[in-house]
Amino acid sequence: MSSEAISRRHALELGLLGAASAGVGLVGLGGNGWPPFGPGSTVRNPAPGQGAALTEPDVLRAVDGVLQVDLRAAPADVSLAGRTAHVLAFNGSVPGPTLLLAPGDRLRVRLVNDLDEPTNLHTHGLEVSPQGAGDNPFVRVDPGEAHAYDILLPADHPTGLFWYHPHHHGMVAGQVFAGLYGAIVVDRDASATAGERLLIISDTSLAADGSVAVVSPMDRMAGREGDLVLVNGQARPVLEGRTGATEHWRVLNACTSRYLRLSLDGHPMSLNGFDGRPLATPHDVTEIVLAPGNRADLTVTLPAGTTQLETLAYDRGSGRGMGMMGGRPPSSRGATTLAIVRATGTTSGAGAVPPAAPGPGRRPAGRDLRSASVARSRVLELATGMGMGMGDGGMRFTIDGRSFDPERIDQQVRAGDVEEWTIRNTSPMSHPFHLHVWPMQLVRTADGPVTVVDRRDVVDVPADGEVTVRIAFDRFSGRTVYHCHILDHEDLGMMGTIAVG
Ligand code: C2O
Ligand code: CU
Ligand code: CU
């Protein structure tokens, strides 16, 4: 049976066929049932609209320790790659406004839902309470309703880049793909962000009429990747700078499913922090992989002339056993230019922006969990299988054999414990594992033991691989979630709940 026949049946089951036929999923399929993309091929953003100077979202700052903001999620028309796109936006802009906070600040967001479907809000990576009016992923805000979030950052909260996006199960991928995401910058001195750039990278696909493309069930199973890869909502913008200037770049992968493998034409960049947690020892890299949800803090010395910030081809699966997916690896697309970096002038130093690398005051505060005593070890298994749940030919996305159930508690943890979790992936594609509230310190990856303190909130678990982390369940108790940050997989059930108390 052809994969298209199967996908048509799924589409019928999901009531999506009319829309899916007009969307990216079923249009222009090659002989193997997949769009003609693969490692090595190049996806080019459309010519119109490119070449504009990079802009950044508006910044909303805390006043006297409180950032009080209304975020209205609603349909909006924005200009994208030279066309008018009908998207979903927070306060009319894609990305939404940047929230700038200092450790110890209070974030009070009134989320107003002017969509025609339920939504909610999650502050990804923040170490804050998941309870009540806090960063509570179980909140549901129906159309026409509002919800007041009240989120208090601890005084020793790490400084770096975090972000916000909707988290209503089943609708997360679609809402993020349509434009609902924004940055949260935590910085000790909220005025000291000069010389820093924020690069929010996202992807989407537009249908012929400018609406956000509806993707096929097959695309959801692979994890959708958009045809347009955007920086701060712009297609291939230009970063203007001075030759030799040292700039601090905070980069977010806000793509629904796409892994980014960033390169500045092979020039070295200093990696100072990851997932909003400064590294004790910054080190030079020529490329950096960001799974969906990951962030990198980079210091870049601008090379003379014109260079390209690219994302290179990345293979996130072998495709083994995925006969129903045409045997093709899940969407590992080719190199794409994200932005043009144009440096002018000389390296005289005059006018160069001083290095913004983390100073001693920005080192991570937390302890090294490799020497902590472990109260309990667990193994969590991420799996995909041919499933009952979605009809024949469909796939189930599970953790420990189960699909998400918000009423169930999957992991009960004692508050204050340090635990060691091995996250095992038995499926033929990579899954970026994300835990809310408590950061994970890498202990062992496919490359062997991790010898530095490296805390993350999204840890990539390669196909047929495993990763071991340690987590200190201190400071906060309550119930929240962990999940695959390929948001389609989360929506399809690859999520569990944890109760700490
Ligand atoms: Cu960025 Cu639970 O999500
Ligand atoms: Cu999160
Ligand atoms: Cu996944």
Describe the structure.
By secondary structure, the protein is mainly beta. The protein has a domain at 369-500: Sandwich (Immunoglobulin-like), CATH 2.60.40. 7% of the residues lie in helices and 40% in strands. The protein has helices at 3-13, 17-22, 172-177, 217-222, 487-491, and strands spanning 59-61, 66-80, 83-90, 98-101, 106-113, 122-124, 146-152, 160-165, 182-186, 196-204, 228-231, 234-235, 238-242, 246-253, 260-264, 269-274, 277-285, 287-290, 295-301, 305-311, 336-344, 376-386, 395-399, 411-413, 418-425, 431-435, 440-445, 448-449, 455-456, 458-461, 466-472, 478-484, 495-500. It has a seven-stranded mixed beta sheet with strand order 12-11-10-14-19-16-17, with no helix packed on it. Strands 22, 23, 25, 27, 28, 29 and 31 form a seven-stranded mixed beta sheet that branches. Strands 1-4-9-8-6 form a five-stranded mixed beta sheet. A hairpin with a 2-residue loop joins strand 16 and strand 17. The longest helix has 11 residues, at 3-13. Bound molecules: CU-O-CU linkage (C2O) and copper (II) ion (CU) (2 copies). One copper (II) ion is lined by residues 431, 484, 486, 489, 494. The site of one copper (II) ion has 4 residues, from strand 6.
Unreliable sequence segments: 1-49, 322-330, 350-363
What's the architecture of the domain at 369-500, going by CATH?
Answer: Sandwich
What is the CATH C-level name of the domain at 369-500?
Mainly Beta
CA-CA gap between termini: 50 Å
**How many E strands?**
33
- Basic shape: globular
Classify the helix fraction into a percent range: under 10%
Bound molecules: CU-O-CU linkage, copper (II) ion
CATH fold-level name of the domain at 369-500: Immunoglobulin-like
Class from secondary-structure proportions: mainly beta
| Oligomeric grouping of the chains | single chain
- Walk across the major sheet and give the strand order: 12-11-10-14-19-16-17
The residue-averaged pLDDT reads: 85
> What can be said about the biggest beta sheet?
7 strands, mixed
Secondary structure tally, helices: 5
CA gyration radius, whole angstroms: 22 Å
CATH superfamily of the domain at 369-500: Cupredoxins -  blue copper proteins
